[in-house]
């Protein structure tokens, strides 16, 4: 672990695994959490800083309410080259926002970067430890299928784009099982935070 500045903890997990719930629990504990998804929504929302660049690259996909997710999705879905162009716009902006967040919380003992595709896209570089949230596959599927507009085909496509849960678990420094009660999840999180706060070497 680094001895200067806050410990940087990566929080990740596949869709429906309870990452947002754990992130909320961290905020309740007073731990600063950088939410990558929320940052992207702000950058692409009404008046968002990325709207001009996205509109220039994908004409007709933005409007007064920000990015039209349906139109932008149609422009990049199943098109790797187009998706790469979009990511070239979004990822650098998110990285800048993340560094600004870290600077704002430089006196905190710990900060958490909530990054859904941490292993898939950014890797664990710069992280002192990575926490993976996980749940049994039937629990995950039930959660995701309960979301508005979700269907089997969309769920399968999302899973195909994400690293399988067993691989994420194997790469994790810490695993939090969210396929339990909220109280049990809070207890598991508290134990993880205690271990991180008392580390004087690498996570084990």
Number of helices: 10
Major β-sheet, in short? Answer: 5 strands, parallel
Structurally, the number of domains stands at 2
> What's the Cα radius of gyration?
18 Å
Name the helicity range.
40-55%
Q: Strands of the largest sheet, in order across it?
A: 2-5-1-6-7
Distance N to C terminus:
11 Å
Query: What is the overall silhouette?
Result: globular
Known CATH architecture of the largest domain: 3-Layer(aba) Sandwich
N-to-C SSE string, H for helix and E for strand: EHEHHEEHHEHEHHHEH
- Going by helix content, strand content and strand pairing, the class is alpha/beta
Mean pLDDT: 90
Corresponding CATH superfamily of the largest domain: P-loop containing nucleotide triphosphate hydrolases
Low-confidence sequence ranges: none
Q: How much of the sequence is in beta strands? A: 5-15%
Q: Could you please say which CATH topology of the largest domain applies here?
A: Rossmann fold
What's the CATH C level of the largest domain?
Answer: Alpha Beta
Number of strands: 7
GO cellular component, one term: cytoplasm
Pfam family, one: CoaE
GO molecular function: ATP binding; dephospho-CoA kinase activity
Pathway: Cofactor biosynthesis; coenzyme A biosynthesis; CoA from (R)-pantothenate: step 5/5
């Amino acid at each position: 672990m680094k001895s200067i500045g806050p410990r940087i903890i990566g929080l990740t997990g596949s869709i429906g695994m309870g990452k947002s719930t754990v992130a909320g629990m961290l905020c309740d504990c007073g731990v600063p959490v950088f939410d990558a998804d929320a940052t992207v929504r702000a950058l692409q929302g009404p008046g968002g800083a990325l709207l001009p660049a996205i509109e220039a690259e994908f004409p007709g996909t933005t409007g007064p309410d920000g990015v039209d997710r349906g139109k932008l999705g149609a422009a990049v879905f199943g098109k790797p080259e187009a998706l790469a162009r979009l990511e070239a716009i979004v990822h650098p902006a998110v990285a800048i926002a993340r560094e600004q967040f870290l600077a704002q919380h430089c006196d905190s003992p710990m900060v958490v970067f909530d990054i859904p595709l941490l292993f898939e896209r950014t890797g664990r570089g710069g992280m002192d430890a990575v926490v993976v949230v996980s749940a049994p596959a039937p629990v995950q599927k039930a959660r995701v299928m309960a979301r508005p507009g979700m269907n089997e085909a969309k769920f399968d496509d999302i899973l195909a784009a994400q690293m399988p849960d067993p691989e994420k678990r194997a790469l994790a420094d810490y695993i939090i099982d969210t396929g339990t009660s909220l109280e049990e999840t809070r207890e598991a999180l508290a134990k993880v935070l205690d271990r991180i706060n008392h580390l004087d070497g690498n996570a084990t």
